[in-house]
């Protein structure tokens, strides 16, 4: 594509987006990143946002891989395989969208899931893994819905946002149902709901950090 940069301008830190350095906490780093974001073009901005979405989809897929290794229940194996296929396809749709803009996906080392992982660790128990999956899926869906509410979204982006949102409903439903079953079998019927509440708290903290940054990326701050 002529005239459109095939690589993002050299303002981003390789492997990350916070020019202010990784030692800062999220909100501070987001503020420090502001000057670097003011110089990027609208297309670069789009590529950056879609790179975050792509990263969240791929890391979501990684959580599902973990679950597949732990869960023996045959019905869950079938559901997990289809679910995983969806997430990888979502990552591809964002990748394709980035390529349509003449760009390449940017590495995301400090995105939503990395921040969640730093705070929550990687759950070892199946019900906790399921709970974390539900919380990150709900967050993805909310982010896509919020994006859809914005004015002047390119038509192709709207198509991708709608396509990826469409699958999240059944993902959340089956995971929640199955995890409650496992919790009941383990003799602790409230386990799933407790774990979801705990991860939701972590999710809220992470989103507070990220929202400042995202508003700047989108030129809303
Ligand atoms: Fe997805
Ligand atoms: Fe999903």
Features:
single chain; 221 residues; mainly alpha; Ferritin; 0% strand; globular; binds fe (ii) ion
Brief description of this entry?
This protein is globular. It has helices at residues 26-38, 42-70, 74-100, 112-120, 126-148, 155-185, 191-217. The protein has 7 helices and no strands.
Explain what the structure shows.
The chain is 72% helix and 0% strand. It has helices at residues 26-38, 42-70, 74-100, 112-120, 126-148, 155-185, 191-217. Helix 1 (26-38) runs parallel beside helix 7 (191-217), helix 3 (74-100) runs antiparallel to helix 6 and helix 5 packs antiparallel against helix 6. Residues 1-35 have low confidence and may be disordered. The structure holds fe (ii) ion (2 copies). The site of one fe (ii) ion has 5 residues, from helix 6.
Furnish the topology, listing elements before pairings.
Layout: H1 26-38, H2 42-70, H3 74-100, H4 112-120, H5 126-148, H6 155-185, H7 191-217
Helix pairs in contact: 1-7, 2-3, 2-5, 3-6, 4-7, 5-6, 5-7
The chain binds fe (ii) ion (2 copies).
Output the structural class.
Answer: mainly alpha
Using the coordinates shown, work out and report the CATH topology: Ferritin
What is the string of SSEs from the N terminus onward? Answer: HHHHHHH
- Distance from N terminus to C terminus (CA atoms, Å) equals 30 Å
Helix coverage percent of residues? Answer: over 70%
Q: What is the gyration radius calculated from CA atoms?
A: 18 Å
* Major sheet attributes: none
Bound molecules: fe (ii) ion
Please give the CATH class: Mainly Alpha
């Amino acid at each position: 594509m002529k005239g459109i940069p095939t690589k993002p301008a050299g303002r981003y830190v390789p492997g990350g987006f916070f020019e202010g350095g990784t030692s800062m906490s999220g909100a501070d780093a987001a503020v420090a990143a502001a000057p670097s974001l003011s110089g990027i073009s609208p297309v670069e901005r789009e590529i950056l946002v879609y790179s975050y979405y792509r990263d969240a989809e791929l890391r979501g897929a990684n959580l599902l891989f973990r679950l597949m290794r732990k869960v023996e229940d045959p019905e869950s194996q079938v559901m997990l395989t289809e679910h995983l296929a969806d997430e990888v396809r979502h990552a591809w749709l964002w990748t394709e969208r980035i390529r349509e803009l003449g760009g390449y996906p940017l590495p995301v080392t400090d995105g939503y899931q990395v921040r969640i992982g730093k705070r929550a660790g990687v759950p070892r128990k199946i019900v906790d893994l399921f709970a974390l999956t539900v919380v990150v899926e709900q967050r993805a869906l909310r982010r896509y819905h919020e994006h859809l509410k914005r004015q002047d979204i390119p038509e192709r982006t709207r198509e991708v946002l709608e396509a990826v949102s469409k699958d999240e409903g059944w993902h959340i439903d089956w995971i929640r149902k199955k995890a409650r079953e496992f919790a009941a079998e383990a003799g602790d019927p409230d386990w799933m709901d407790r774990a979801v509440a705990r991860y939701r708290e972590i999710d809220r903290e992470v989103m507070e950090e990220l929202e400042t940054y995202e508003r700047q990326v989108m030129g809303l701050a």
